[in-house]
Nitronate monooxygenase family protein (Streptomyces telluris), 776 residues
Amino acid sequence: MQTELSQRLGIEHAVFGFTPFPAVAAAISRAGGLGVLGAVRYTDPGALARDLDWMDAHTGGRPYGLDVVMPAGRAEGVTEADVEAMIPDGHRSFVRDLLARHGVPELAAGDRRGWRITGWLEDVARAQLDAAFDHPLALLANALGPPPADVVQRAHAHGTLVAALAGSARHATRHADAGIDVVVAQGYEAGGHTGEIATMVLTPEIVRAVGPLPVLAAGGIGSGEQIAAGLALGAQGVWIGSLWLTTEEADLGSQALTAKLLAAGSGDTVRSRALSGKPARQLRTAWTEAWDDPSGPGPLPMPLQGLLVAEALTRIQKYEAAPLLGTPVGQIVGSMNSRRGVQAVFDDLTRGFDRAVARLDRIAARTGAPAAAGAPVGRAGPAADSPD
Amino acid sequence: MQTELSQRLGIEHAVFGFTPFPAVAAAISRAGGLGVLGAVRYTDPGALARDLDWMDAHTGGRPYGLDVVMPAGRAEGVTEADVEAMIPDGHRSFVRDLLARHGVPELAAGDRRGWRITGWLEDVARAQLDAAFDHPLALLANALGPPPADVVQRAHAHGTLVAALAGSARHATRHADAGIDVVVAQGYEAGGHTGEIATMVLTPEIVRAVGPLPVLAAGGIGSGEQIAAGLALGAQGVWIGSLWLTTEEADLGSQALTAKLLAAGSGDTVRSRALSGKPARQLRTAWTEAWDDPSGPGPLPMPLQGLLVAEALTRIQKYEAAPLLGTPVGQIVGSMNSRRGVQAVFDDLTRGFDRAVARLDRIAARTGAPAAAGAPVGRAGPAADSPD
């Protein structure tokens, strides 16, 4: 699975694996993909530096990347306290009542509260970058479009490619104009922040809009067959996030959450503003249902919603309040049904890709005169083309 | 593009083209695919018989199919008048006011009113079948799951394969149990009635659920690259509907509607219950916005909504009330930007498919040691893998 982009990055397979867990990211890079570590949970730049040191020691010299969450625009001088003050009391009591109804205990005095959202603030992201650029980053990805211009320049000076997620061709064009190197076409079926255009339509649309800039297909990719589909659409690689959540190397901090992911079907996710204020695909839970209920107050806009719910999400996770317990995840959650190591998952991806390409070769080679034009057809029997 | 299924049907390419227009269906069959004529607009079985006679004379002996809209369950003795009586007055006045607000004239005394929905009633569909089975149908497809058991038996006795649309693996399994021969996996991005699971995820899920029964990928397929993607996912063929709406052979009966389709982007569709009462993807218009507005009465359930709006839709179309004018269409509408003949469109499909397979072959062949493991990477330049 080598494209021009994977060759330029010096990786064996054009598989970009996003994950919040250093052990997963390192295993993806060791397996021949590009592990991309999510930085959003690191409020302490020192902790990020330590984990990147660990990555350097455990990737066997293979390249890896970092994913940050930075808005391209800046709101100078706005503090977390300023944003907190904009949250209506009615929303605070809605959160309090929802957790009380489900019997979720308060945090103890010493517990860390709400890391989930502070990583979204620009000063936190910049401190992350100061720590990160001491390391040999091959790729810097940003979940909210292009990072600020000075960050793009800094990455390029460091020899780091810059990638930005886009949910529409219009956004992708804007990202390309900002000087980034790779567009991640994030389809509707993807986990996390996502738009309404499905990967099958979005990928070629973005390839047309920004080519020859390389595009990664994201959303709905969890098998080698799906990788082949993404690359058939013109992508130079695939961006996979959800699939790693149930690997042995992943530490979700909750057995109950892992069990929910393994049990969930493709119809058990929802695109909801309940986590961050922007539509993000996640497990459908009592939490998303409460926020999406038209009789409730509804989610606040980003970044208010994220700040509002940060502590609540920490409590739900810590006390494993099963009905409320969720996570961003894509529709491929329906195929994530067993816990395996990253290498085993990766081996399946390469085998599935080879199988899909071989099948397409047979289908292409068979082109020619029909076998029995106009002849009546009988009841369908088993078909040898079926991949199973 | 030949699979076991296309070989069994005696067609050159595993491309199934759904269309309400005999001229389009015949041209698809002549081009080597399987034209599938939508029967829903034929309230007069005699008119359907005449059009099928025309198809027989204009497909050069190539196979074709018919698509009906039949519920699997029967509501014995329920007439159109019974259903009409269930429509609340408030909904009738909402329709009246909406059309008045947009200045849409009343129909004249002699005008045909509201053919769009009567084809959904079982007795109409059965009369259509009586006419259709006088013709050499290769495929009978049903948009609402498996047709009633006696219809499946009748099709099989006639040498006709039976296909049913499914939006989830659970529905597909139920369809397979009803003895059908082909499942059409209708993804979220498809035009018309559709579920929430995207084609990228739905297709392999249904292949796993019903294999070795053949599956067609539907939704998001409008190019050869997208055909390659659908087949990579394990499908035995693709089901394409939207793409033909802007061909020269199609007669939408409204220049304004054709112009809207040619101008629309992938983000200009919406999954709405405004046409039939069940979620169907269609152009986003003042009509869909009015029905989806939470301050309005909202759509009625199927089949009430279809009966309620039939005459209104006829008026909107006849008088080309541009803001209200819409049609079921999928997200690929964004790539339908020029009016061409069916054969030219088909040639593009086969060329794009060959190009995608050749590109995948190159990507697969390149697998091996990385070119420059661990080396720093520079600013991205043009990439030769880009399909454009």
About this structure: Confidence is low (pLDDT under 50) at residues 369-388 of chain B.
